[in-house]
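Entry 14. Ran structure prediction on the chain below.
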Amino acid sequence: MEQFFHIRERGSTVRTEIFAGLTTFMAMAYILMVNAGMFSTLEGQTTYGAVYIATALSAVVGTVLIGLLSNLPLAQASGMGLNAYFVYTVCLGMGLSYANTLVLVLVDGLVFLLLTVTGLRKLIFEGIPQEVKVAISAGIGLFIAFIGFQNAGIVVSDASTCVALNSFNVYSGNATWASIMPMLITIFGLLAIAILAHKKVRGAVLWGILGSAVVYYILGLLTVPDFYATAVAPNLAGDFFGAFRDFADFSLFAVFKEGFDFSAYIAANGTGSFIVMFLTTMLAFCMVDMFDTLGTLYGACSCGNMLTKEGEVPNMNRAMLADALATCVGAVCGTSTVTTFVESSSGISEGGRTGLASLVTAALFFIAMFLAPVAQLIPTYATATALIYVGVLMMSGVKNIAWDDPAKALPGFLTIAVMVFTYNISYGIAFGLISCVFIKVFSGKARELSFATWIIAILFALTFFLTH
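Output, structure tokens:
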């Protein structure tokens, strides 16, 4: 291990690496429940158990790859925000099937792989204006927090205002204890996560989810009539290996079995619309994946003083290669884009410096694969706490937008606002880029725009004119 990982050379020990890997797993294990719960809304196309196994398996592969290829203490799994884009924007919004969207994820992985090998990744990354780059993360954070509030039942649809706060009034008859109790669980669970994180408790998000679930069942069984029959018994009905059977039936190789049949979409929207949709949606997947990975690599390595003298991430191309390969594996398994998790910084803060920590995290994800029946007991009201809190963490990027400069503030604001208001991540990126191009052109700074920026902006513009 010393010859391969250079543990002593990097100022670490085997024990420290093991503890760091455990810490990283505790910090990001929530993705197993959250991702499976999100995909379970695609009823008839996949199941909670199938996506749980797909998420765990792709996390194992991705984390092993990044540990062995880059020798960095990082971990990978289905990315937050990208999973919401997959389910709510592409599947439920655009009308593509679960298998169709997996094709887009697979192409994203292959394109990301090509960009990494050829070096074009850097060209495209530099072609995106800085204000749009930093706004993407913040916009996705607000977007998934919005989904969390909806999953908890706190935010509901309204005929006049589109959205509204759900009723907590138990006196007028508009609400009952059975309806407000789950919402209160989410609110207090969110507060508990914030308190635990403030006190530097390892795995604060995971403990918040598990604690919320325990309180939910205790209060439900003690105070809500027929709670056992409606909320408990259905979750106990599945057998232990049902998740693995669902994985084989619904998710594994679904991208090849049904994914390349886009006839339903083409019949409804036309061939031209399909081509533009395919290009722009794949581009959105790739861009978000790229920015998320680059930001995480720099952020995680900088917090552990692991950057090179030139300020670069060590073995960065190998880390990006692992990310691209993991995304391809994730698509084959049946889950959304696999990316490097910012929660890896928790393990680095505990002293992790080598890929050995990654292998420990991967081993724990492998063990977690066999706990799907237990994870399925976690209610959406508990996992909603993770969605909202991760949204809080991702909003930190807004401080890097030059709000005192209208030429930069508007594209940044549109990127964030349009993502949430249209329930579509790619639309936010499109409005941010297009507005930036217009401002640069009409303020006499068109020369500052790169060729890549023009191409991406034009593709997104065509999306609006040809698909809506």
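The chain is about 70% helix and 5% strand. Will compare against last week's run tomorrow.
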